[in-house]
Amino acid sequence: MNILLLCDEYPPGKHGGIGTAVQTLARELVAAGHIVVVAGFYDYSYGGQCHFLDKGVQVYRFKRKLKIPFKKVEIVGKAINKLYMISGIWDLEIKNSLLKYHVFLEGLIKQYEIDLVERPDFNDYIRFCRKKRVLEKLSVPVVVKLHGSMTYFAEEAGKEIKPYIKETEYWYLKEAEAISSVSSYTAMKTAEYFRLDRPIEILYNGIEPQEETVYDKESGTVVFTGALSEKKGIFQLLKAWNIVVKKMPDVRLSVLGKGDIQKAASFLDGKAMETVTFMGHVTRDELFMKMKQTEVAVFPSYAECFALAPMEAMVNMAAVIYTTRASGPELITNGENGLLIDPDDVQGIADAIIRLLEDGSERKKIAINGKRRIEEAFLIQNIAQKNLDFYRKVIQKKNRNNYFN
């Protein structure tokens, strides 16, 4: 099968969970003998090569031409970016770029004889627009995978969403040949928020297998990986960490992820601050090495679709504390292969951390069961095959409809 995956954050470079999930799937599909092309709609400032090969995956970055002469994180860059937004310059540039991107994709479809296109429900460019701007329909079947749209996360947080954003995201869902989702929870809530009345296939994210490891961890170590944002629960974790350190002063917390470190650190008191290391964004290899060394991994998220972070910890035998919210219970059975906590319960988060650090027997049991859980249900080889089965169903249905029409 020849597959085109649309992804605007494919590694290397700035990326989140979608980029990692797409890369993991794409590489496995190539390893299984399929032709896989990844294309994305990028801001000019993203950097990196416009075309490269990643373990057999053909990766293309279509870069919009308009650029800001300063980084968006700098004061001048932020001011120019705001001016572009208010004046509608970004909106017009994106409108014109989407037309060129459509031509570019049709070229790839022809060149690689693409059978099917998959795109995510999240599209970063939408936030720079002032009205609905969409990529017109392509010449082959397009499926949408739910990783978490802007509408989804806004609704989950009880925040308002601009009508044009919801309208744009709904258009992509409505026009899709079929829809899949990385979790049952995300499928249910997306259907509710967009009033969808159509089947949604559940295709969980997958992860690469890791070598059998002896359970050998550094004593008193805890890790958090992810964006330093309220949504990921890092501020709640740091509040809880103040309580943990009062009872266990020799423990250490490593925080891996991008975001405002100064803001995050403001939630720590003096003694707790000495026990926390903010490592910023790290490579996946560095992340996995940290997981292999760490006893406990904590992810008190408020909103997720099907996060890779707890899976990465589990496959590396770190005992995981995860959220009761969203898809948390789809991954973890509380007390068996992890602990589930309410992110609003700061004392509960602290108690769970202390419980696993103090009880080595339970910690090891949960770590071993967590690794087994991943190996039985979420290894990428099996997940990739389920994606292929879904793709084939979509193509066969499309061919039948074309035959009878």
TrEMBL record:
InterPro entries: Glyco_trans_1 (IPR001296), Glyco_trans_4-like_N (IPR028098). Residues 215-372 form the Glycosyl transferase family domain. GO terms for molecular function: glycosyltransferase activity. Residues 16-210 form the Glycosyltransferase subfamily 4-like N-terminal domain. The keyword Transferase applies. Keywords: Glycosyltransferase, Transferase. PANTHER family: D-INOSITOL 3-PHOSPHATE GLYCOSYLTRANSFERASE (PTHR12526:SF510), GLYCOSYLTRANSFERASE (PTHR12526). This is Glycosyltransferase family 1 protein. It comes from Taibaiella soli. The lineage of its organism: Bacteria, Pseudomonadati, Bacteroidota, Chitinophagia, Chitinophagales.
